[in-house]
Amino acid sequence: MAYVLLVSLVRFCIYVQKPQSYSSFYWYTQLASAAIGYAVISKFWIFTLEGYPGARRVTYWLLPIMFLIIVWGRSLWHSGAPARSVLVEYERNMREAQAILLFVLILVILYYGIPVTRNLKGMLTGFAIYVSASMTGLAMQALGISGHVNRWVLVQPLAYLSSLSVWCIFLWSPSQTVGFSGPSKIDNNYLQLTTTTTTVIMRLRNYLTRAMKP
């Protein structure tokens, strides 16, 4: 919330004082916002899986790897492209990754019946609105739908304001911590996954050891 307020104020000052520099500053801050948003969604996963240490441990290394793949892959793909198009493409890929992670997280919550606090529900709802609005605007720019883009310039701030309103309502007061009771389906699935993975790795190592012997 503090970052959003600070960036909005700085953007407004630049728009008034140096309008010729506003466009480039806007896209650089949008890229930074997308990166911070990815970190926020990673925190959503960690908070949701707080009572499930095995599954939570996976998110610590899986989500950073996904982030590095996005950044590194796009750096190679757009090595000679103009700066603005690269920034727009980076943000679009970040928003797509955020949308996928949010969707999967909601499915995990519903499928495993994971209890979540009122604060977390509000954060997920507000962020889903914001990511959906950002992806829609970026998709229109990519398709070159100029008329719809001009109208979306008016709609996107409303979606942005809706997200902030949802966050303010649900985060106004702290909610009670959700309790976790004993092993659950997600713990059993995690144990099955780790056991299967360990078995496959052991078999592969034994096969390679036998193959390398003269």
Attribute tags:
single chain, about 210 residues, mainly alpha, 2 domains, about 85% helix, globular
How would you describe the overall organization of this protein?
With 214 residues, the chain is mainly alpha-helical. The chain has two domains: 2-181, no CATH class; 182-214. 83% of the residues lie in helices and 0% in strands. The protein has seven helices and no strands. It starts with a helix and ends with a helix. The mean pLDDT is 75.
Net shape:
globular
Structural class assignment: mainly alpha
- Gyration radius (Cα, Å) is 21 Å
Q: For the terminal residues, how far apart are their CA atoms?
A: 63 Å
- The number of strands is 0
Element order, helices and strands? Answer: HHHHHHH
Flag low-confidence runs.
none
- Note the main sheet: none
Specify the number of helices. 7
Brief summary of the model shown:
With 214 residues, the chain is mostly helical. It has helices spanning 2-17, 22-48, 53-77, 83-112, 118-143, 146-170, 185-212. Helix content is 83%, strand content 0%.
SSE topology sketch:
Elements: H1 2-17, H2 22-48, H3 53-77, H4 83-112, H5 118-143, H6 146-170, H7 185-212
